[in-house]
Design brief:
CATH topology: NADH Oxidase
Helix content: 25-40%
CATH class: Alpha Beta
Radius of gyration: 18 Å
Number of strands: 7
Order of helices and strands: EHHEEHHEHEEE
Structural class: alpha+beta
Largest sheet: 5 strands, antiparallel
Strand content: 5-15%
Number of domains: 1
Length: 215
Amino acid sequence: MIIEKIRIDIDRGEVMRLLGRIDSEVGEIDARVIRAVDRGIEDAGRLCEPKGMYMIARGKDLPGSGIFDDLDQVAFCICTIGSMLEDRVTSLTTEGRLLDAVILDSAGSAAAEATARYMDESITEEASKAGLKTSCRASPGYGDWDVREQEGLFSLVDGGMIGVSLSESCMMKPRKSVSFAKHIDQKPLRLRSENSCRNCDLDICQYRISDIKPE
């Protein structure tokens, strides 16, 4: 299933976090920086083209290590904000407008996460119509799910249909893209590679998912 023209909100607090600030500091930052961030968010809103696609398959249909082999239904998803924002970041960098480039890049990361969250919620909503629940999402390259298994995920979900491809090192292009899997069941299992932030000891990491604390 392809979902296009996704409406997302880019959260200023999330952008500030990615820039190395936390929400409580926002009021202490120079007003010029705040204006620059707000301008970057506005620009990102114009440049983003959020879209995603997913399919539901048996876990054993995924080529690779067999990490999901025991699961009857797994939603495999790829989503992206497109390449225009990434191209603009490159242009700003070339022009020497490094602050604007960094802010726009962070806004793009926040937008990509918002797009993934939208797809996540859409899958959960569809599953609930059948009386089923879903696990949290897990992504290649996190936990014990090897990033090289992106190739297997892309063999199930044709990312090219939404403009996403893989490099030789299994990195997605455009960079502001997200891939993930979710178990669907009446009692979904916790996937081994989900919530890697919860198991990481680096509690000062600016990329930590904000509502997850290390155990």
